[in-house]
Amino acid sequence: MDATDLPKQRQFTSFWVAGIAAFWLATAVGGLYVIWAYENGAGVPSHAGPQWPAGTTLTAATDRPTLIFLAHPRCSCTTASLGELAEALARAKTLPKTYVVFLKPSSMPDGWEKTALWTSAQELPGATVIRDEDGREAERFGTVTSGQTLLYDVHGHLVFNGGITSARGHAGDNAGRSSLVDLLNHATPATSATDVYGCSLVAQATS
Amino acid sequence: MTALAGSISRRADELFSAYQHDIHRRTDRLFAGLMAFQWLLGIVFALRVSPLTWAGAESSMHLHVRAAVILGGVISIFPAMLGLFRPGLVSTRYVIAVAQMLMGALLIHLTGGRIETHFHVFGSLAFLAFYRDWRVLIPATIVVALDHMLRGLFWPQSVYGVLVASEWRWVEHAAWVAFEDLFLVVACLRSVAELRQTAERTAALEHEVRTRQEAEDEMAELVDELKVTQRQAEIATRAKSEFLASMSHELRTPLNAIILYSELLQEEAKGNDAASIPDLQRIQFSGKHLLDLINGILDLSKIEAGKMGLELGRFDVKRVIDELADSVSSLVQKNCNTLTVKCHANVGMMHGDLTKTRQILLNLLSNAAKFTTEGSITIEVQRIKRGGADQIEFSVADTGVGMTEEQSRIVFEPFTQADVTTTRKYGGTGLGLAIVSRFCELMGGTIAVQSKLGHGSRFAVRLPAEMANAMTTELFQSAGAA
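^ Those are the sequences you sent over. The predicted structure of the assembly is below.
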């Protein structure tokens, strides 16, 4: 190789490196966009009615609000939701009657639902953790997404319906939790409905 | 700027560039390893935090796991390859800076946006400062700012936790990153300044070492030249001595005839021409002085030419001293001096060159008698131990004119006397003590003098009590080579 060919070779190499770098950057940013979109893609919202459902086996409180938290026991996103619920209850001046309802498909063996989430839910103040066989209670409350949180007032009116995380599995401040805390503290909430982020409680939906 | 300062400065520039390049290369390789580690860490996070996604009783691999493997690989592999195969290049560290921040974004996603994982961003900036190139922080900061800006625009709740946020809120987040950048930039600039100082010091040190080496080389050349000159001088000295020895011999023959005939003429003049006697005496005196001088030169030349040998034998030291005392008694009495002999009982026998020993002592006693008037001369002899060997110490002390310190220092050099007036007043050739000194050296002994002007002198000669025959040869060669 001639010495004069060296700068040309370097230029050629630099050109290819720059091209690969541009492709690399575009691919990486594109990949991150997919992750962002997934993370911020809300689950199917609840179609719960405005009143306490008649067919439920759960009992609503008449002296304080009643909170229903429906969850998939193995959904990783719900870990953040349960953490936010604990945070909301800790900040609440009026502790609601709380039900944490975990899905238990009949096709799964006994104890399938007893996960770390179940244990965490048991530690919530005043919470009742129950197993929801084949998601019947979830259906009664019109819910198909894990992390759905419903708050009923003493008259059985639905006052909050939504998720309490800002994105999938994303812990931290969010509008849902803030509104829930406001309602429990007799303040005016920013919103009464938010998007919910979590796994599907029923088959064929994606998480 | 002088040429020297310019040369050092250029060398400092070279060293500085080399140091920087080395730092960049090392940091690139470090990041290559870090990229692989972070990729693996992301996969572990994903498998641990969100391995599966569920829909009722059905499950499938979570998107996070695929993202950790595929996207983590996409982000890591290219900069890691650059770090390994193109280390030290500006483009490599810029790509690494961007990749590090993209990896931070991915890890934050994989850990569910935990606040703790956000420290990856700040840690990465500090790690990038390892390059000691503050410019690298710019693309990294831009990536963080863009990430917050874009997500803030499209999904503000996931970034700020509220449904609606100011479109400029990303600036607050970016400002905190810039806040850290500020300190890192200062740290980089200081570090580079120190690196520059190190390069300058090293360049100066190198120059000093080089200069010293050159000086040492020059010195070695000079030493070599001196050795050659010394060898030439030795050859010349030996040639001169050989010439002198030969010439002295040729001079002594006619001179002896002059002295002899001046004596005969004096005898003849006593009867018929008494007036010419003083002139004839002057001729005889001058002839004898010249003969002494020639004899001295001959001895000195023999020593320097390496032709002076030793004739060893065993003799009784006390008897030699007594004989000497007898032979110099008239000389001692001439200036109304007294001679004291102190010969210690332990002196005993000596194995050495009797003639030269006698010549040494005779010279010292003659000098003492010559330079002392109405005083005392003492010769003291004793056997002493030095370095495990017996030595005989002869000391001749007088209460004569003495010498100054300067005179004492040069008194053993040939053709030197205390001063010119000494020669005029006391006579002598100026060779006596030089020959004495050479004889002492030749016999493996030493001579030293202590003197004070107006208070006399003391000469101390130390000679080996048992001089070996082998030593004789060695000393002979040593004296000859000197």
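The CA atoms of residues 112 and 193 of chain A lie 31 Å apart. Chain A has two domains: 1-39, 66-184.

Shout if you want it in another format.
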